[in-house]
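Trying the structure run again after the queue cleared.
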Amino acid sequence: MLQSLHRLSLSALLLMGITICTFAQPVLKGEVQKPIVIVITIDGFPARALQDPRLPMPTLRSLAAAGAVAKGMTPINPTVTWPNHTALITGVDASQHFVMANGLIVLPADGTVPKIEPWTDKDKLVHARTLYEAAAEKGMTTGQVDWVAIYGAKGVKWRFGESPDMHDSIPQELIARGIVTRQQIEKFGDKSSAAWRDEVWTDAAVDIIEKHKPDLLLLHLLQTDSLQHQYGPLTPAAYIAYAYADHCLQRVIEAARTAGTLDRTTFMILSDHGFATYTHTISPNVALVDQGLLHKQGNSYRGNVWVKAEGGAASLYITDASLRADLLPKLKAYFTGIPGIQHVYTNQEAHSLGLPLETDTDQAPQLYLAAANGYAFSDDTSGPLTRINPPLGQHGYLNTMSDMQALFVASGSAIKHGVTLDSISNLRVAPTIAKILGVQLPDAKQPPLNEILR
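Done. Tokens:
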């Protein structure tokens, strides 16, 4: 395996040496060159990994050397995939777009356990203007592959979703080319590996670039997140995932070359959050059971108070508003005293962290629990309140945690060469892309990264 990765790295490095030279192809006199932006997110890639000289990602390093790289990129709270992917293409945080988890948080009226519904239409989930909507208004086309919080979205022409739809044209094109079968599309997530899904998602991105040449392409690679949850960040398994993600980057760049669009393409290589290692798990719902706020009925629990865990943070919901005045100070004091809980925020206090107000959306929690370093939360309702576990990987911690810092690399036609930035906010990404494409995101208040633009 290591020899294969070494050969892959050398091949990619030679390939990228050619690629960098082609970014600056001459433009024919009178020819109008429409800008293209390709956004690729490597889920959970920690910014600090890029500082390791042993990192087997020659394609990423070449892109960084030929363009701009930040020492770190601060995600929004919560430092979770869907909220941050949404921030990257809207330029606003969760206090405005209202995405608090990897889907819509549903609190059943019967008091049973909260659910997260990922297959929720974008218009119901995301309450902010997106880049693809702004691009569509200007007559531009967008493709998306495994992007999130985008189901049923208007303004996306070419799509191959996290759960691909057989009726979409891109899955049909991949079937026609013999890349996947109809059965594999219909059962895409069933017993398939994260590596295989990343491969097919990259196949879809290549197909969209080569055949349809979208003005904006959004591609999300996921295996890095899956393996880091299981084995932890910066582990041998994580490095193999990083190397494979680099191979996917190489394929996307080559697709732009094949399509004849490389000279007018800007690549944004990003991550949604970093990753941390934890060895202790806290289960707040166990405390709610012990306090009589959750009651077992048959095989399930019911109650007016639930905690929904998101790794390094957890949201507490009191669904009966009449109970909040009495319960909030008691629960805040109780959880503040639990070892491993760094801080407990009221909704108003959490708003200062970029979370929504409870008066604006039912996605906003009444209390927000932040884990200390080495701890993470679970949704368990049984077992000990706190337990020790083998070292595992997690995110969701407050965005001020250094391990949560994300990746930012920009390279290509619109980007200056050899620019190094200090840490930036990921809320500056969408305004920067908007400026390159010539579209407007009036709700995005952070300035574009003018210092990296030609």
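The longest strand covers residues 386-394. Worth checking whether this holds up in the mutant runs.
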